[in-house]
């Protein structure tokens, strides 16, 4: 039983239009974050400095009451989450740096009045000087990753393959960053060093999927110009690079979807059943894997086919 053939290249502007419909709002969100937070995304305390407090209350705590207490103590905008350690509820508070011990004692007293007694599990401080170092290291890692990928793919394939791969990867990074920028504006979602790890992991997964498709295109490139028959009309014609790209994508389509689906199922379980502290990281991975699978199948191959067709037309134009 033969699988249905999807004409990817024919509808390339549809796929690219879908990508633009997702990335453009994200870019707008990133620009709004630049005005609102002076950063492309809402930075967490890993980048701005601050304190992380983990308290275990004797009675179940109302998160909104915790937020209200923090606001009354001059800690507006603090992030409050519920987590479970060994089956016990733990309230995780991410606030600006509590440098003065008197401020922390005042906060503890206010929490006891509103919510009862609690046990302090941990109080961690992140220096504001660590934030820029983490950000700089993350950006350097990102640029080095792109540069080494361009070098490797140019050597292993050709330069146009490398450029199309990097465009597809940039699409994945923009989709992921744009969605988190919008979440930062609407939901107050912050990014930390784990987000940088998620971005780099997504890039690695996406480029792996793209290389599988491109390797099949390179293997089938020898059939460009060979004669074949249109199954619908019965007419004989010569295969173009777009035809070869279509055949290659369809040959690897099932493998790409099955591989990504296994990862998506695992990440979905971690998101819904895992801890609160890793939920944003897992969400970033989920968004990135889905975007990376889409770009590998629908964007990278279409861009490469368009590039090759444009080069052929440029050579045929009279001087």
Report on the structure:
With 319 residues, the protein is an alpha+beta fold. It has helices at residues 12-37, 45-48, 63-72, 101-115, 130-156, 159-187, 193-220, 241-273, 279-316; strands at 50-57, 79-85, 88-95, 118-126, 227-229, 236-238. The strands form two sheets. It has a four-stranded antiparallel β-sheet with strand order 2-3-1-4. Strands 5-6 form a two-stranded antiparallel ribbon. The longest helix is centred in the C-terminal third of the chain and has 38 residues, at 279-316. The radius of gyration is 25 Å and the shape is elongated. The two termini are 50 Å apart.
List its salient traits.
elongated, alpha+beta, 2 domains, 6 strands, Multidrug efflux transporter AcrB transmembrane fold, two-stranded antiparallel ribbon, four-stranded antiparallel β-sheet, 319 residues, Alpha-Beta Plaits
């Amino acid at each position: 039983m033969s699988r249905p053939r999807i004409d990817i290249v024919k509808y390339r502007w549809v796929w690219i239009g879908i990508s633009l419909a997702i990335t453009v709002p994200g870019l707008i969100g990133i620009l709004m974050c630049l005005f609102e937070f002076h950063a492309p995304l809402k930075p967490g305390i890993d980048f701005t400095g601050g304190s992380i407090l983990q308290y275990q209350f004797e009675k179940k705590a109302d998160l909104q009451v915790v937020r209200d207490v923090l606001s009354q103590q001059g800690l507006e905008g603090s992030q409050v989450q519920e987590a479970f350690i060994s089956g016990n509820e733990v309230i995780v508070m991410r606030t600006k740096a509590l440098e003065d011990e008197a401020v922390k004692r005042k906060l503890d007293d206010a929490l006891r009045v509103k919510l009862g007694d609690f046990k302090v599990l941990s109080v961690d401080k992140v220096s504001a000087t660590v934030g820029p170092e983490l950000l700089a290291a993350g950006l350097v890692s990102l640029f080095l990753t792109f540069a080494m990928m361009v070098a490797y793919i140019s050597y292993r394939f050709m330069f146009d393959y490398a450029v199309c791969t990097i465009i597809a990867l940039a699409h994945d990074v923009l989709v992921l960053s744009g969605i988190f920028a919008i979440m930062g504006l609407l939901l107050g979602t912050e990014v930390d060093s784990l987000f940088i790890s998620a971005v780099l992991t997504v890039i690695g997964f996406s480029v792996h999927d793209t290389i599988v498709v491109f390797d099949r295109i390179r293997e089938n490139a020898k059939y460009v110009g060979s004669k074949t028959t249109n199954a619908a009309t019965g007419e004989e014609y010569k295969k173009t690079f777009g035809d070869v790209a279509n055949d290659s994508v369809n040959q690897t389509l099932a493998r790409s979807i099955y591989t990504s689906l296994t990862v998506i199922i695992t990440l979905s379980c971690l998101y819904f059943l895992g801890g609160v502290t890793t939920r944003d990281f897992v969400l970033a991975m989920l968004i990135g894997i889905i975007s990376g699978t889409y770009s590998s199948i629908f964007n990278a191959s279409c861009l490469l086919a368009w590039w090759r067709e444009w080069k052929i037309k440029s050579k045929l134009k009279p001087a």
